[in-house]
Design a protein that fits this description.
five-stranded antiparallel β-sheet, four-stranded antiparallel β-sheet, alpha+beta
Length: 592
């Protein structure tokens, strides 16, 4: 073993130990490992940062932005709404929600697909005779399986495609993963449709800080469209209860105020006073022919390109707003701030927002130019609340994001453009058409994952360049020699599946991918099949909450403990190995 091989193995081994220990952040460990590789000369300076500009990082980042654009459009909730109203028990909720998550994961990145549908599942689990615990883990596992179907569904597929290009000279195409991925997804869906009963149902999920803040019921005003659709004759026809919104009053153009009873007739151009949390109000305003009632004057901006932000703030005891109304303070004319909603502790606001006398402790939803907000908050004596996305009646194009994604998928299917180009273009168009603001696009990225992949890619290449990959492969070939080809393939998948919970799925593929190619060549078997086994094994961490972001994402809201994952995950892991191994061997010609 050469000095360079020893050093490269030592750096990778040290990183693996730190990953398994869990004391330090994954991204920090990967950056330190890259720095050490640079200092000792294992990683050449000219290629040290190539991982950050690779197609893998571009594709993953772009897929996250596209997923956020789809989520922001509300089209998924709109599409699934007719089904959720009929689902009252876990036996029907689990297959529908898990299946929807898998389907969405095929076309967007799996963690984005899960994030889109989690709010629906949480409302369903809390409002019906169900439990989020029964829903969220099956949805997480199906997001992992659904992500296996296409190149962009999961990071492991994207990385293994890069490994194939580096070792065999050609990447995997968009739908090369589909035959195996679809079969595994179908078997997995059937399994979780019955296997959810293995999960505890008496757990209480942990609410995030943003969810606690979001529980505040805001009062806002919305103008009824003119002309009004014929199907919407009364307040009952609006079905505001479906969104968690309570109608308070209807105010006619002449100022006449009428209590919002279910049989009250709607009047085009009238103002409807509504109460609900900001997410509920946003859903209602997006679904119905209602527009958020706000001043028509433009917001004050330092430059035309400046973006607007919507934030929550609480009125402090020394605020100049105390005892004043929004109309009297001329909030927009003087400060360039729009008042979108008001919430008051233990009291329902029944007046028009412009006429409400503000008090210390009132919570406001405000919109202003991004640069003006800090000074405005100080001048008005307002304290911004926890940082979270706040939306209330923002204008959005429901179908434009779906159209953009559809065009990208068609271009990929016809092989008109490469994957990185298609998804980068789709991500940029999400911002251009207004589906996302630039801030929202940036916030949708997962920098820790992008840094992890960017930093470990040159280290993985260094192991291969120093001959370390061939050395490990030679040892594995000796161990696997004499085994039936199918068993050797299953063993590689099992190793990848075992490593993923401790290394994270991305490092698992970066380290094991080149080794799998060398092992296949040493055994005289098809390297594509072994690469697929690595991608499948690394992408199917069903045993812990730490191997994949999807499992981590549902842990708190689902009330899961570390030991809960193996209850459903262990039999599903065996199912993946038993079904996936022969499928890979059949599709990818193991013996070639």
């Amino acid at each position: 073993m050469t000095t360079q091989q020893i050093l490269s193995f030592a750096i990778i081994g040290g990183a693996i130990l730190c990953f398994a220990w869990g004391r330090f952040r994954y991204d920090l460990v990967s950056l330190v490992a890259l720095l050490i590789g640079l200092l000792v000369g294992v990683v050449p300076a000219k290629t040290a940062f190539s991982g950050f500009t690779s197609d893998v990082v571009i594709i993953i980042a772009s897929a996250l932005v596209v997923s956020a654009g789809i989520a922001r459009s509300g089209v998924i909730e709109w599409a699934i709404r007719p089904l959720t109203a009929r689902l009252t028990r876990p036996r029907s909720q689990v297959p529908v929600m898990a299946g929807a998550t898998a389907l969405l994961s095929i076309f967007t990145k799996n963690v984005g697909a899960l994030a889109i549908l989690m709010p629906v599942a949480l409302r369903m689990g809390r409002e019906k005779e169900s439990s989020p615990t029964s829903l969220l883990m099956p949805m997480s596992f199906l997001s992992l399986l659904g992500g296996l179907v296409t190149l962009v569904g999961t990071s492991t597929n994207i990385i293994v495609s890069q490994v194939r290009e580096q070792t065999l000279g050609r990447p995997f195409q968009m739908f090369d993963f589909a035959p195996v991925g679809l079969v595994l997804t179908l078997f997995g869906l059937v399994f979780v449709s019955f296997g959810w009963r293995l999960l505890p149902r008496d757990r209480q999920g942990r609410a995030a800080l943003g969810e606690v803040t979001a529980a505040a019921p805001y009062t806002t005003e919305a103008r009824i469209a003119d002309p009004l659709p014929a199907a919407l004759a009364t307040i009952a026809d609006l079905k505001l209860d479906d969104d968690g919104v309570k109608p308070l009053a209807l105010i006619l153009a002449d100022g006449t105020r009428q209590p919002a009873t279910p049989d009250l007739s709607l009047t085009a151009g009238a103002t409807l006073m509504l109460e609900g949390d900001d997410a509920a109000l946003d859903r209602a305003l997006a679904r119905l022919p209602l527009t958020s009632e706000r001043d028509k004057a433009a917001l004050a901006k330092e430059t035309p390109a400046e973006e607007t932000r919507t934030i929550e703030a609480v009125i402090q005891p020394d605020s100049r707003l105390i005892g004043q109304t929004a109309e009297r303070t001329r909030m927009q004319e003087r400060y360039g701030v729009q008042l979108l909603g008001i919430a008051r502790n233990r009291e329902q606001i029944t007046e028009r927002m412009r006429d409400v006398r503000l008090r210390a402790g009132d919570m406001l939803v405000l919109r202003a130019g991004e640069a003006a907000l800090p000074d405005t908050m100080g001048d008005l004596g307002l304290l911004p609340l926890a940082e979270r996305a706040v939306r209330m009646g923002d204008q959005r194009g429901r179908w434009l994001p779906v159209l953009i994604l559809g065009v990208a998928m068609v271009l990929l299917a016809l092989r008109v453009v490469p994957v990185a180009t298609a998804f980068f273009g789709a991500a940029v168009m999400m911002v251009v058409v207004g589906a996302l603001s630039m801030r929202e696009a940036i916030d949708s990225l997962e920098p820790e994952v992008l840094i992890l992949i960017g930093a470990l890619t040159p280290l993985s290449e260094a192991v291969r360049a120093t001959g370390g990959t061939d050395l490990v492969a030679h040892l594995l070939v000796g161990q696997l020699h004499g085994l039936a080809p199918l068993l050797a393939l299953g063993a590689i998948m099992l190793v990848a599946m075992a490593c993923s919970p401790f290394l994270h799925n991305a490092p698992t593929v970066l380290v094991l991918g080149p080794i799998a190619v060398s092992v296949a060549k040493g055994l005289g078997l098809g390297p594509d099949a072994f690469l697929m086994a690595v991608a499948t094994g690394a992408g199917c961490d069903f045993l812990t909450p730490i191997g994949h972001q999807c499992n981590t994402l549902v842990m708190g809201p689902g009330g899961y403990r570390f030991g809960d994952y193996w209850r459903l995950g262990l039999p599903l892991s065996f199912l993946v190995i038993i079904v996936g191994t022969p499928m890979i061997a059949w599709v990818w010609h193991l013996g070639v």
